[in-house]
Design a protein that fits this description.
- With about 150 residues, this protein is of the alpha+beta class.
- It has a domain of about 110 residues.
- It is about 50% helix and about 20% strand.
- It contains 3 helices and 6 strands.
- It has a two-stranded antiparallel sheet with strand order 1-2. Strands 3-4 form a two-stranded antiparallel sheet.
- Helix 1 packs antiparallel against helix 3.
- The radius of gyration is 22 Å and the shape is elongated.
- This is Flagellar basal-body rod protein FlgC.
- It comes from Paenibacillus sediminis.
- Belongs to the flagella basal body rod proteins family.
- Keywords: Bacterial flagellum, Cell projection, Cilium, Flagellum.
- InterPro entries: Flag_bb_rod_N, Flagellar_basal_body_rod_CS, Flg_bb/hook_C_dom, FlgC.
């Protein structure tokens, strides 16, 4: 019973993490042309691309999990994933010469965010596929649990 509920928890953590990843990607796409996300010392600071960093929720390392599975022990089990942090991309901003733009510097350059919409769309497809895989895994576990309950009738 606990392994089935554990599989629900693992899928749920994946769903939650991928949903947050899709939200961050959506924010990146929405701000792809934002030249004034904030103002520091009178200068416009453009939006900077955000990235989601995920890590395992496990308290055990891989070797411990592998050994426990090989020996049939149930001490170390996977516990899903979590978002450990949301970081800013440190790649350079995109300078565009436009001296008429209100955010242009003294040389006439406007700095646009370091967001590549093509890359963001690829990341969105990846996050969507991962989300769908977690839904499929959740539904499979639910089906197994339902069949197990029917056996007892």
């Amino acid at each position: 019973m606990s392994s089935i509920s554990n599989s629900f928890n693992i899928s749920a953590s994946g769903l939650t993490s991928q949903r947050l990843r899709m939200d961050v990607i959506s924010s990146n796409i929405a701000n792809a042309d934002t030249t004034r996300a904030s103002v520091v010392n009178g200068q416009a600071v453009p939006y900077k691309r955000k990235m989601v960093v995920m890590s395992t929720n496990e308290t055990s390392n891989f070797a411990d999990v592998l050994q426990s599975k090989m020996t049939g022990s149930s001490q170390a089990t996977g516990e899903g994933v979590k978002v450990s942090e949301i970081t800013e991309d440190t790649s350079p901003l995109k300078p565009v010469y436009d001296p008429t733009h209100p955010d242009a510097d003294e040389n006439g350059y406007v700095y646009y965010p370091n967001v590549d919409t093509t890359k963001e769309m690829i990341d969105m497809i990846s996050a969507t596929r991962s989300y769908e895989a977690n839904v499929t895994a959740f539904n499979a576990a639910k089906s197994i649990f339902s069949k197990a309950l029917q056996i007892g009738k």
